[in-house]
Amino acid sequence: MVFDLRPEIAAFRAEVRAFCREELPAELAAKVRAHRWLDKGERERWQRILYRRGWAAGHWPRAWGGLDWSPLQRFVFNEELERAGAPWLTPFGINYVGPILLAHGSDAQRERHLPSILRSEVWWCQGYSEPGAGSDLAGLATRAERRGDRYVVNGQKTWTTMAQWADWMFCLVRTARGERPQHGISLLLIDLRTPGITIRPIATMDECHHVNEVFFADVEVPLANLVGEEGEAWGYTKVFLTHERILATELGKADRLLADVAALAARVFEAGAPLASGAGFRRRRAALGVRRDALEALAYDALDRFERGEEPAVEAAALKIRGSELQQAISELAVDVLAHAGLGYDTGSIMDAAADEDLRRAETGWLFEHFYGRAFTIYGGTNEIQRAIIARQALGL
Ligand SMILES: Cc1cc2nc3c(=O)[nH]c(=O)nc-3n(C[C@H](O)[C@H](O)[C@H](O)COP(=O)(O)OP(=O)(O)OC[C@H]3O[C@@H](n4cnc5c(N)ncnc54)[C@H](O)[C@@H]3O)c2cc1C
Does the CA dihedral 265-268-269-274 come out positive or negative? Predict the structure, then answer.
């Protein structure tokens, strides 16, 4: 089931679908569908294809290379890309720091950074979390002291996704201590080539390099790299939150995963019959489909309200919870389908069809999805924090 609310949205969806059919390189889509790791060059390649079509940042204003897409258009665009198996669009430039600069940056900052973000020439990472500040972000301790025409930054960030590939970081720092911990937090744009910065990988259970620790020792940052007002950055962090949580629904990806898990179950045999035809699998698959449809209804309701100028923060929190949980539940089903064959991460399959290279790859890919998927309910604000938002804002608790 796909909601198409208005004819122009249905036409836009069809256009995006046709574009993916024609322009999405088959080898990239095959890697995404097999849950393979994509390197920086592969991600850049797809983002540049979108740039050439004028779709690198459709939600940005036209004056800065965007198309003024509505939240609904943007959602449909992402949904279709996910469904087609397009590489995940790296959000740090286009979705995070770009909108912050559009809302709070200086003209000089916009002119310097937005064009290179649009063209995927410069990569960004997000320096918010610290060892003692995750959910409680206002507890961050990385300090920036003013000395003449510079700030001197000392401290540590953690869980910084893709810092190993990034050229720049948008970084929350403490410039003062206020009455409340949210006061005195500033946003700096930091060139990662500046002396005094050390980036170290954090090992994750899938054995890939997603995240890093970033250390700052007397790192000098020009005052001109302060975004907005000193000490006022707490409000800037909210620029993209509702929108990002709605996008975290990842409806198109859920559809792709559901189709793939059914295909996997059709190839795995138990007592001479494919698992896909067994009642146990069909019941679980159907229950996931119902959850997927409920998610779609909630997402389009939230988008409708967004388009009418409301801020559906509660719905966005619910979508983040339900979207991430659904993806985890689908990969859990795949791991159960694989059964004992799933024990062999990154090694050959021990299934009957061990000679079948496709199945071996499916096994490792699903485990990669399953392992990394533990993070879906943590990053972007943990699901417990989303539940607290719902409790406060919807239930008044
Ligand atoms: C794969 C991955 C990539 C990430 N990428 C980035 C990145 O690029 N940049 C960046 O800045 N950060 C990034 N993060 C960090 C992420 O934002 C934090 O992990 C997240 O905000 C949780 O913070 P924490 O890890 O400190 O856990 P904590 O905040 O210590 O939470 C631990 C547990 O306690 C629960 N908890 C905490 N407070 C409450 C509360 N008030 N009520 C109920 N339960 C609570 C949490 O839900 C969680 O279950 C990433 C994290 C992961 C896992």
Answer: positive
Beta bridge partners of 154: 143
Q: What is the pLDDT of residues 236-265, one digit of tens each?
A: 988 778 888 888 899 999 999 999 999 999
**By C-alpha distance, which of 337, 336, 339, 328 is closest to 371?**
328
N-terminal to C-terminal alpha carbon distance within the chain: 35
* Active site amino acids: 244
Per-residue pLDDT, 352: 37
Least confident of 179-193, 278-292, 332-346: 332-346
**CA 157 to ligand 1: nearest atom:** 11
- Whole-number Å distance, alpha carbon 211 to ligand 1 midpoint, is 13
Catalogue all structural domains in the chain, each as residue range(s) with its CATH number.
Answer: 7-89 (1.10.540.10), 124-232 (2.40.110.10), 241-393 (1.20.140.10)
Ligand 1 pocket residues where CB is under 6 Å: 125-129, 134-135, 159-161, 210-211, 375, 378-379, 382, 384-385, 388
Q: Ligand 1 center to residue 159 CA distance, Å?
A: 9
Report d(CA 17, CA 77) in Å as an integer.
9
Cα(134) to ligand 1 centroid in Å equals 5
Probe target for ligand 1 pocket from 212, 379, 386, 387, with the most ligand atoms within 8 Å of CB: 379
Distance between CA atoms of 394 and 316, rounded to whole angstroms? 12
CB 324 within 8 A of CB 248: yes
Could you tell me the distance, in angstroms and rounded to a whole number, from the CA of residue 130 to the centre of ligand 1? 10
For residue 1, pLDDT over 60 is answered with no
Distance (Å, whole) CA 236 – CA 180: 16
In the chain, pLDDT over 90 holds for what percent of residues? Answer: 77
Ligand 1 atom at minimum distance from 161 CA: 8
pLDDT for 123-167, tens place per residue? 999 999 999 999 999 999 999 999 999 999 999 999 999 999 999
Q: Whose C-alpha lies nearest to ligand 1, atom 23?
A: 134
Residues 235, 321 contacting (CB under 8 angstroms)? no
